[in-house]
Amino acid sequence: MVLLQSGPPSWRQLAQGAVLAAGPGAALSHRSAGFAHGLVATPAPEMVVSVPLERTPGTRPGLVVRRRRSMPPAAGALRCVDVADTVLDLVADARREDEVVGLLCDAARSGVPRPLLLSTLARRPVLRHRRMVADLLGDADARVESPLELRFDRDVEYAHGLPRSSAQVRERVGAGWIRADRRYRELGVRVELDGRLAHDGRADADAWRDNVVRVESGDITLRYRWRHVVTSPCAIASQLAAALSRRGWRGAPRRCGVTCGL
Q: Are residues 154 and 238 in the same domain?
């Protein structure tokens, strides 16, 4: 590849050079392909390419080569592993469950079809986090749209035996449409989950919306941030159970373990 320009090469030009340097059958993959597909906001510091197992390209600075027993489909002017396999490659590299959920949510927001991911998963029987991916993609209710929602469902609601809420409930309130992250419809309790790490101007709008909901429907809204759900799920369960009980729930929360604060 000959670069005919005076300025520094673009990321795409460097990526093209990496694929060419890796030789026949090579394709951009993992985080580099994720950046090319718009799945991740920033590329890896090194270009990552995949090649068939029988090939062993020489080492080059700034190039990471993944040799694969079964090469996934790849195409494009900038030859990349296809988007569904790229999502699963990124999942396999993820170290934490929250990363897995975040990747799948980002893929959904980017327009990667769930059936395509499921069919791709089916032909990859060996994959790190495979069971979790299958569970999330197979959730017919499509409840989880963020790692925070997964933690709430698992660590607050399910772990403490609370009623199962409805998720992503959209309805008209006041002059517009709103959506509740979680709603206990028959009990008049809503839960809003805010994963933002910093406060911003939305807080005033959220408070106003909560007031409108209380006036029009009589529902109460409980709001929890990331640090609440991650560090104090038992305390949230206790508060939520109290709110549900005051609204008519006849059940009782259970302790999630020997150290549970309930």
A: yes
